[in-house]
């Protein structure tokens, strides 16, 4: 037993924790749980797994069709180690293929150990990634996709395979952002305004992921569009998207000017009667996704 002095700093009171106890339980820069008992005692407990980031998940694979979804779910929930146990109904070869599909879009996930009926995955993602940098990178890659998709439609350069590879990169960044955001939302000391900011960031990340899917679908149309106005639309849309993301991340763009650019671009798309209807629909949908980012800023 030891005694600690109660110190008053400002409007709060503080008691130091034993240094050895903090080190043994690896609590530096972490949290502890306080529990007040009816007899007046104060219990200091170690944080629960949900507060520190759950370290180990075990998946029972009874269907090789489900293992992709199960691994994705465990990754997004922040598990560092994912153990996949294959029962008799789960085909090992097919399960490995599905896991490889998951690894292709889940940044930092590696297969580190395998046996006949068990697979061990580990995620080497650090929790201190800069979310702003991830969002900025998603914006950059999706705008590159837009440029390439329009060039494909105009018969200039690029191919659908290259476009799909870029979309996979966007997906990896998106799932990484969701994993990191969910981890931060579990922090017990998170302020309400920080929580709201993280939720907004997840919506922006989702919009950028949807933009990537939309731009990929443009390049999959497999036809040449003889309309140079398409390049003008792509330039306007890309410029507007860059401004919207900059406004969200840095607050440096002019919101009113962006909204004016949105209205002019929307009108430009609607008045281009020679564009096929399905193409105009995809471009209009992308434009609305960008507008959502402006509205969240």
Automatic annotation (TrEMBL):
InterPro entries: PhoU, PhoU-like_sf, PhoU_dom. One of its GO terms (biological process) is intracellular phosphate ion homeostasis. It comes from the Archaea. Coiled coil: none annotated. Residues 135-216 form the PhoU domain. It holds the Pfam family PhoU. SUPFAM superfamilies: PhoU-like. This is PhoU domain-containing protein. It comes from Thermofilum adornatum.
